[in-house]
Design goal:
CATH superfamily of the largest domain in chain A: Metal-dependent hydrolases
Largest sheet of chain B: 5 strands, parallel
Distance between the termini of chain B: 41 Å
Number of domains of chain B: 2
Helix content of chain B: 25-40%
CATH topology of the largest domain in chain A: TIM Barrel
Oligomer: heterodimer
Strand content of chain A: 15-25%
Number of helices of chain A: 13
CATH class of the largest domain in chain A: Alpha Beta
Strand content of chain B: 5-15%
Structural class of chain A: alpha/beta
Helix content of chain A: 25-40%
Number of strands of chain B: 11
Number of strands of chain A: 19
Largest interface: A-B, 37 and 37 residues
Radius of gyration of chain A: 21 Å
CATH architecture of the largest domain in chain B: 3-Layer(aba) Sandwich
CATH superfamily of the largest domain in chain B: Aspartate/ornithine carbamoyltransferase
Shape of chain B: globular
């Protein structure tokens, strides 16, 4: 039996229920029993949330957990701990593991590991094509029976239009979300950062924004033609945003996410050849950063997802050209959202929770994202004013590849409940 | 030489690129090189300036001329020199750059001169070791000592850099020599034009403060000096330009083209020359060519660089090697 908790005195922010005010929350049997003013119910434990924000647990719809295959970088256990540290109660893992998540048996064994090791909810994305090679579709129905909720070949784009068209149709038939990593590999070939003055100056091969938005354009056209539904992963440039905005207006079923680094950093951060600024898509220009912020504010971009991509120090401590793409993000996403968006009046708290919880839950069709009575008690308690320095030795993830090490950040998750159980209490992960 | 040149003190641990140097620091190197130039003309071409110091030439790319030049520069300063050549193809399997750097440092050496095919490798090495790091050319990024010797040669020929019109001609996109020259020349007040076929002009290069043209005649008109880059036709299996003959026709420096230029135009080339491709033999060996003087000056310039970094006062880590701590906004 799980304990009865009473979260008292906090500012409850629940964009789905349009709540933003001082309320208490009673949790029992792993569920939200009641949300109300001045609740005085009996509880096993009263959690004092005075001065804190109480919100539905955060949901990250783009995480690389590396298990199976690269357990030296991250595991279900370490990755889900990092998630909890960051205030997340649910995460969606990507299928570019080794082997790729393209067969029912692999999904099945992954589910066993999740059952054994996960500290938060972990949802699974299956591969669109076998071995993510873009050649032959996987069996969406069978994978769904094993429990996947989305499909993607993330890390690469599906290049063949016919295959993509069929994938969109089948995803629709199986009610699976199709998530597309948009990149034209012919245009980005060999590139290691954004193409422009900075890459020219640094003597590095560039990936033009065009390699992203041409692929966005193509998949939007296919989605329109097949009346399918597509979710665009890690949007980084202005032109992609314009295309998505237009498509939404035209009634195409499209949703989109961006990652915290795309509203925080520009390509200029690459100038010292710090390989923790190397990611795909690459950091873009100031104009792109502004466009991403605007798109978050006007709703063109629905969700903030981290694209948490762990790599070991020895993989990253090499020449810029040789380093793998990607950075970890679970532990800094919320703080960057507060520091860069809420504090700078780009988003309200309500909107931030929408992007980090309610919208991802809605897009994925999973429980959570709201504090409705009767729903699983996935809750995060945030200290909105907490200022801290993000230190390398405090990183929970197995990998430490973050460009935000030693940054002064504001806003931090302090307590997390997953399905009514405490996963982190006063910054201590259980 | 300006009077303020001697006032400044060299404080940089490394020489990673001319982008990271001030005008005064560049002038200090050229000034120091001038006094070492005199040494190289003596009967006994050796001074004890770096006696007891060890220089390691760490080369990940084959290079006879730059390595020899650095080796002679170090030897003429009485330093001990060790050459290490590592094949780029073995790097991915073998020891990392940082590990190699730290192992070399553990041998108690003083300066690492590094040539690397990956842009930024010297920056990464510099922040991983306490030894001084001198960039001998990295990828398409920078080749600071080449640009310094180009500027030294230009200054000794024409007496100044400021106000000169200098055109850099050839594969700008893939040239570290071009980038270092652009930084150095513009900092010292020259007007720089870059000239190349469309495909070999990298995006945003004009933001480095240069004029851009695809027209060779425009690049030559009124130029006080030209720096002609070595043309490499095959890159990643793709052709950068349709044919060598066609390149020579459109961009090759010939006596006819030179005849329309300023009479005393200085013709430079970082070598090795492809005769009959970037320039005709007549031009390469002609009276305007300073190509061999560049080679000679290279030693004096490299002596100056080795000397300055070796005795840098309380060197702070170079800005260029620091990992950024602040955000974009």
């Amino acid at each position: 039996m799980s304990k009865r908790y009473l979260i008292k005195g906090g500012r409850v922010v629940d964009p789905v229920r349009k709540i933003d005010g001082p309320l208490d929350i009673l949790i029992s049997d792993g569920k939200i029993e009641k949300v109300g003013k001045g609740l005085n119910a009996k509880a096993d434990e009263v959690i004092d949330a005075a001065g804190k924000i109480v919100a539905p647990g955060l949901i990250d719809m783009h995480v690389h957990l590396r298990e199976p295959g690269r357990e030296d970088e991250e595991t279900i256990r370490t990755g889900s701990r990092a998630a909890v540290r960051g205030g997340f109660t649910g995460i969606l893992c990507m299928p570019n593991t080794d082997p790729a998540l393209d067969e029912p048996l692999i999904i099945k064994s992954l589910k066993d590991i999740i059952k054994r090791d996960a500290l938060c909810g972990i949802f699974i994305t299956g591969a669109i094509t076998v071995e993510r090679s873009g050649q032959k579709l996987t069996d969406f129905e069978k994978l769904k029976k094993e429990g996947i909720i989305a499909v993607s070949d993330d890390g690469s784009s599906v290049q063949d239009k016919k295959i993509m068209q069929e994938a969109l149709e089948r995803a629709k038939a199986s009610s699976l979300l199709l998530i597309e990593h948009c990149e034209d590999p012919l245009l980005s070939a060999g590139g290691v950062m954004n193409k422009g003055f900075i890459s020219t100056k640094m003597g590095l091969k560039g990936m033009p924004a065009r390699s992203e938005y041409e692929a966005v354009k193509r998949v939007l056209e296919l989605a329109k033609r097949s009346s399918g539904r597509v979710h665009i992963a890690h949007v980084s440039c202005k032109e992609s945003i314009d295309l998505i905005r237009k498509a939404k207006k035209a009634g195409v079923e499209v949703t989109a996410e961006t990652a915290p680094h795309y509203f925080t950093l520009t390509e200029e951060c690459c100038a010292t050849y710090d390989t923790n600024t190397k990611m795909n898509p690459p950091l873009r220009t100031k104009d792109d950063v502004e466009a991403v912020k605007m798109a978050l504010a006007d709703g063109t971009i629905d969700a903030i997802a981290t694209d948490h991509a762990p790599h070991t120090d020895s993989e990253k401590d090499v020449e810029f050209d040789y380093a793998p793409f990607g950075i970890i993000g679970l532990e800094t996403a919320l703080s960057l959202g507060v520091t860069e968006l809420v504090d700078k009046n780009i988003l309200s708290w309500d909107q931030l929770i929408l992007k980090l919880s309610a919208n991802p839950a809605k897009i994925l069709g999973i429980p959570g994202g709201s504090l409705k009575e009767g729903s699983p008690a996935d809750v995060v308690i945030i200290d909105p004013g907490k200022e801290y320095t993000f230190k390398k030795d405090a990183i929970v993830s197995k990998s430490k590849n973050s460009p935000f090490i030693d940054w002064k950040l504001k806003g931090k998750a302090v307590t997390v409940l997953v399905a009514g159980q405490i996963a982190m209490k006063d910054e201590l992960i259980l | 030489m300006q009077t303020n040149e001697k006032k400044i003190i060299w404080k940089k641990k490394d020489l990673l690129g001319l982008e990271y140097l001030s005008k005064e620091e560049i002038e200090l190197i050229l000034y120091t090189a001038a006094s070492f130039k005199e040494v190289t003309t003596r009967q006994i071409k050796k001074v004890p300036a770096l006696r007891g110091k060890t220089v390691v030439n760490l080369f990940y790319e084959p290079s006879t001329r730059t390595r020899t030049s650095f080796e002679l520069a170090a030897k003429r300063l009485s330093a001990d020199v060790v050459n290490i050549e590592i094949e780029a193809s073995s790097v991915k399997k073998g020891e990392t750059l940082i590990d190699t750097g730290r192992n070399i440092e553990a041998l108690k050496i003083d300066i690492i001169v590094v040539r690397h095919n990956a842009s930024g490798a010297p920056n990464i090495l510099a922040r991983s070791v306490k030894s001084r790091v001198v960039n001998a050319g990295d990828g398409w990024h920078e080749h600071p000592t080449q640009a310094l010797l180009d500027m030294f040669t230009l200054k000794s020929k024409l007496g100044r850099i400021e106000g000169l019109k200098v055109s850099i001609i050839g594969d700008i996109a893939h040239s570290r020599v071009a980038r270092s020259n652009i930084w150095g020349l513009t900092k010292l007040g020259a007007q720089v034009t870059v000239c190349a076929p469309e495909l070999l002009i990298p995006e945003g290069i004009e933001q480095m403060g240069v004029k851009v043209t695809t027209d060779i005649d425009e690049a030559l008109r009124g130029a006080d000096a030209i720096n002609v880059l070595r043309m490499q036709f095959e890159r990643d299996g793709a052709l950068a330009f349709p044919s060598k003959l066609e390149y020579f026709k459109q961009y090759g420096i010939t006596a006819e083209r030179l005849a329309k230029c300023k009479k005393d135009i200085v013709v430079m080339h970082p070598g090795p020359i492809n005769r009959g491709i970037e320039m005709s033999s007549e031009v390469a060996d002609g009276k305007n060519s300073v190509i061999l003087e560049q080679v000679t000056n290279g030693i004096a310039v490299r002596m100056a660089v080795l000397y300055l970094v070796a005795y840098a006062k309380d060197p702070a880590p170079s800005e260029a090697s620091k990992v950024r701590k602040e955000g974009a906004g």
